[in-house]
Design a protein that fits this description.
With 190 residues, this protein is mainly α. It has ten helices and no strands. Helix content is 77%, strand content 0%. The N and C termini lie far apart (59 Å).
Length: 190
């Protein structure tokens, strides 16, 4: 799996050959086919692993504190951590040359939805906003976090990771403060 991932990350799906993966893994091509019927099956198995990771990281970030400003910062940091990994798994998730393959698109969308749903649950609970509006906020924070984190790593920015993540978190938090917590809303209307 590690050998396949490194080849997919370096070359993309279409330019990767099963021969190259077998060579890198130091196994014969028939051995590789004993485990995976085809290249797409191998790619999807790797994608399943990586798309399962990010929602867990986001949920752990949200569960790490009850302070919502810190929650936003931790959730944004989860995306920066994911894109900064040495294995560059994010390239398979967010920059795949198979983006139009229905099975790939479905997995990536499911992962993004899980991340957004976790954020939306906190927003809905704290603000009393309807589920649909809370989901929109969750999708916005997820989209902003993953796009900026990918931009940061691709651009080779001179901004340290912690500072880049902090900037995005401040932007997200300032936007979220426009939706006060229910108990704060009640206190100001009394």
């Amino acid at each position: 799996m590690e050998a396949a991932q490194s080849v997919f990350v370096e070359s993309g799906y279409h330019a990767t050959a099963m021969d190259e993966i077998a060579d890198r893994a130091q196994v014969s091509k028939p051995v590789l086919y004993q485990h995976f019927p085809g290249k797409l099956d191998l790619y999807l198995a790797l994608l399943d692993t990586h798309t399962a990771e990010l929602p867990v990281l986001v949920q752990a970030a949200l569960d790490s504190t009850s302070d919502n400003g810190e929650r936003v910062a931790a959730a944004v940091e989860a995306f920066f951590d994911f894109v900064n990994r040495k294995d560059a798994a994010f390239r398979m998730v967010f920059e795949s040359d198979l983006v139009n393959e229905p099975e790939v698109a479905r997995r990536v969308l499911r992962m993004s939805d899980k991340c957004a749903d976790s954020i939306a649950a906190v927003v809905a609970e704290d603000t009393g906003l309807p589920d649909e509006e809370s989901k929109l906020i969750g999708v916005a924070l997820v989209g902003m976090s993953q796009v900026v984190a990918r931009y940061w790593i691709a651009s080779g920015s001179d901004i340290p990771r912690a500072e880049a993540s902090r900037i995005v978190a401040v932007l997200g938090w300032r936007g979220l403060t426009g939706f006060p917590k229910q108990d704060e809303d009640l206190a100001t209307s009394s």
